[in-house]
Automatic annotation (TrEMBL):
Protein name from the UniProt record: ABC transporter ATP-binding protein
Coiled coil: none
MF term (GO), any: ATP binding
All residue ranges annotated as the ABC transporter domain in the record: 24-257
InterPro entries tied to this protein: AAA+_ATPase, ABC_transporter-like_ATP-bd, ABC_transporter-like_CS, ABC_transporter_ATP-bind, NO3_transporter_ATP-bd-like, P-loop_NTPase
Primary location class: membrane
Topology in the lipid bilayer: Peripheral membrane protein
Transmembrane portions of the chain: none
UniProtKB keywords: ATP-binding, Cell membrane, Membrane, Nucleotide-binding, Transport
Subcellular location: Cell membrane
Amino acid sequence: MSIITANRTTLDDNGLFPSNEVMLDLKSLKKVYPTPKGDYVVLEDLNLQIRKEEFVTIIGHSGCGKTTMLSMIAGLNDISGGNISVLGKHIKGPGPDRGVIFQSPSLMPWMTALQNVLLGVNQVFPDATKAQRNDIAKYYLQKVGLEDAFNKRASELSQGMQQRVGIARAFAIKPKVLLLDEPFGMLDSLTRGELQDILIEIWNKEKITAVMITHDVDEAIFLADRVVMMTSGPKAKIGDILNIDFERPRTRKSVLEHDDYYKYRKHLIDFLEH
Ligand SMILES: Nc1ncnc2c1ncn2[C@@H]1O[C@H](COP(=O)(O)OP(=O)(O)OP(=O)(O)O)[C@@H](O)[C@H]1O
């Protein structure tokens, strides 16, 4: 069986996805940072649509504005122009519909893994019973392989285990959109591979939309339905988008052995080198 599938969505006359398929819509997005030397326009006229249940990875040169874009989607960074909507509604700040996983999970070091996950769960599900909230937190900790570490303090956990807690914490609030800013950037390649598999498994089960920044071209291809390439700043925008048509579930072996893998890889590297 071929692992290449046809792109099932048809774009309208303006090159847009049908609105009922769209989860995230960035329209003419602009970001200006004031600096001592005057305004610095990081992003300008950036347009991007991301579909429901899609996994999109973002690549671009260091400093082009990837984190700026992601933090604006998260509602943690003001929008200077244009707008961002989730399911057709303009965002006005952070909200439980969007979960974020950063490179460093910034857990409360004195709290246990369970207590760290519960911090978010308690906020988002105030009407659930204590037992129900505990069940949600434990379910996701178990999903990331931490069933034996519920009561370990965050300060006692390795970096990889802390990031597992970060993943559990983000999924446990049941967001519509998961935003990931280089979540595996600080991990060794073995742990990185393990956490990519865990991430994809939960993402696939929960059917949420994921947007992930990465500097790793192989990671970008392995995880994504589409790889979005940003131009270099200032005034960065979307430079190109590559559809990754490998069937899911994917294994590293099947992806690496497929001829198209090298075609995709070359496309991304050519973009980054020019
Ligand atoms: N608060 C701020 N004030 C002024 N300039 C900023 C601010 N935050 C980011 N910048 C600048 O905006 C540009 C984009 O930064 P951003 O962190 O979004 O890039 P990035 O693509 O995520 O980089 P990297 O890949 O290195 O993480 C950079 O030139 C950065 O120095």
